[in-house]
Design a protein that fits this description.
With about 270 residues, this protein is an all-alpha fold. The protein has a domain of about 120 residues. It contains 9 helices and 2 strands, in the order H-H-E-H-H-H-E-H-H-H-H. Helix 3 runs parallel beside helix 6, helix 5 runs antiparallel to helix 6 and helix 7 runs antiparallel to helix 8.
């Protein structure tokens, strides 16, 4: 009797569990629902890391370690999920996921190595939130590419969209990585530095205070074009919700720290606009 009851209970629980497709659908909706609150929270509370570091956010760890840990799901979780999709052996699926992995391999392994000498600390609470988001987003992007994308049979349309998106993505990643490298070099202290920072010069820094953020937004716009999906669009919008308010806070910080020395024509993140 006990054995049979247990089997019935398991069967009932399995019946109650949503299918992966249903779960995926609700996850996509959730991505869009959390975007406006994320923008508002970032607009009125600047995350306490980097130049905005402040006490009161719990224990901290070295920034390089934080970046490695919180970005890592975008690599290992993607590699775990991808082989579970129906398109796992489709060359187009493999090609499509490659730019996503390429960005995050750099962000998870190479970027932390560039800043490992930094003495700056990163709140564990913020790193944990980023870890959870990256886990969630990796699920969405990977399951779309390897399971739910439905246009791999349309050769012409797929390749036109992919090539256009890849071009935009490549330009954005170049700007993002180059700008990050310029900022890392600028943080070396000397007699002309205020609080460990210099005024960024050259490149897109002549037009915006946060060229690295602008580059990343362009990257994920390219990704949205490549995937032609709601998940790609949602990721790009969420990136804007997270980075645009921080860019505004950084721009204000530069103006306050450098005063009249800071170029007045610069915008925060979008050249000539904002």
């Amino acid at each position: 009797m006990y054995h049979g009851a247990n089997n019935n209970s398991v069967a009932y629980n399995l019946w109650k569990m949503p299918s992966d497709e249903t779960f995926f659908h609700y996850a996509v909706v959730t991505l869009f629902l959390i975007t406006p609150p994320t923008y508002l929270s970032c607009r009125y509370t600047t995350a306490p890391y980097g130049r905005h570091h402040r006490k009161g956010w719990g224990p901290t760890i070295p920034s390089s370690l934080a970046w490695f840990l919180m970005e890592s799901p975008t690599v290992w979780f993607t590699l775990v999920l991808f082989p579970l999709g129906q398109h796992k052996s489709n060359p187009k699926s493999i090609i499509l996921i490659s730019p996503f992995l390429f960005h995050y391999i750099h962000r998870t392994f190479i970027y932390p190595l560039r800043i490992y000498r930094s003495k700056k600390q990163y709140p564990v609470s913020i790193a944990l939130m980023a870890f959870i988001y990256n886990l969630f987003n990796s699920y969405l992007q990977t399951r779309w590419v390897s399971q739910y994308a439905d246009d791999y049979e349309s050769d012409v349309w797929f390749w036109i969209r992919f090539c256009c998106g890849l071009l935009v993505f490549t330009v954005g990643m170049f700007v993002n990585v180059r700008s990050d490298m310029m900022l890392v070099r600028l943080k070396k202290k000397d007699d002309n530095v205020k609080n460990g920072y210099k005024i960024p010069r050259n490149g897109l820094f002549e037009y915006v205070s946060c060229a690295n953020y602008f580059g990343e937004i362009v990257e994920w716009f390219g990704w949205a074009v490549m995937t032609g999906s709601w998940v790609g669009l949602g990721f790009m919008l969420y990136t804007c919700a997270n980075l645009v308010p921080r860019a505004v806070a950084n721009h204000k910080w530069y103006l306050e720290k450098f005063g009249e020395d800071y170029p007045k024509q610069r915008k925060a993140v979008f050249p000539f606009l904002y």
